[in-house]
Specification:
Elements (H helix, E strand, L loop, with lengths): L2 E6 L6 H11 L4 E7 L10 H11 L6 E6 L3 H7 L4 E6 L2 H17 L4 E6 L9 H9 L10 H12 L2
Parallel strand pairs: 1-2, 1-4, 2-3, 4-5
Family: Belongs to the bacterial CoaD family.
Cofactor: Mg(2+)
InterPro entries: Cyt_trans-like (IPR004821), PPAT (IPR001980), Rossmann-like_a/b/a_fold (IPR014729)
């Protein structure tokens, strides 16, 4: 069984993330979207909220699960008995960083492969940071995030 892990902070999940999730889920038996608990970041959404948003976005998918993790990614991948890490790339600048991480992961866990997936051209500019900045200032985020969570993102800034 091919088990893939797609890690990220997903703060919030965007249509770019969803594009990678949908495409990756078609080439594996099971895809775990792994939401990183990163103590050094100050996320807009709590880990519970990010997991909940992702579950809402992938509702109805039969081979996708959402989990959170902390610590080393390779340890989580081993724990899940997965064999591939999926990484989405938007631009050359993403590749430089992700290549270094893939090589480090390979050093730590030689049996785990990293598969790079280019973002669809429609989302090659998109990041969670950009979505948050737009939403913070009342910009239009429709088409950038899954429609089913758009209101929750906008409402998050109304509470601040």
């Amino acid at each position: 069984m091919n088990k893939f892990i797609y890690p990220g902070s997903f703060d919030p999940v965007t249509n770019g993330h969803l594009d990678i999730i949908e495409r990756a889920s078609k080439i594996c038996d099971k895809l775990t979207v792994a939401v990183l608990i990163n103590q050094s970041k100050n996320p807009l959404f709590s880990i519970e909220e990010r997991v909940s948003l992702l579950k809402k976005v992938v509702k109805g998918s039969t081979n996708i699960e959402i989990e959170c993790f902390s610590g080393l990614l390779v340890d989580f991948v081993k724990e899940k008995n997965a064999n591939v890490i999926i990484k989405g790339l938007r631009a050359v600048s993403d590749f430089e960083y992700e290549l270094q991480m893939a090589l480090l992961n390979k050093n730590q866990a030689p049996d785990i492969e990293t598969l790079f997936m280019m973002s669809s051209i429609n989302y090659s500019f998109l990041s969670s940071s950009m979505v948050k900045e737009l939403a913070r200032h009342g910009g239009n985020i429709s088409g950038l995030v899954p429609e089913c969570i758009e209101k929750e993102i906008i409402d998050k800034f109304k509470l601040k």
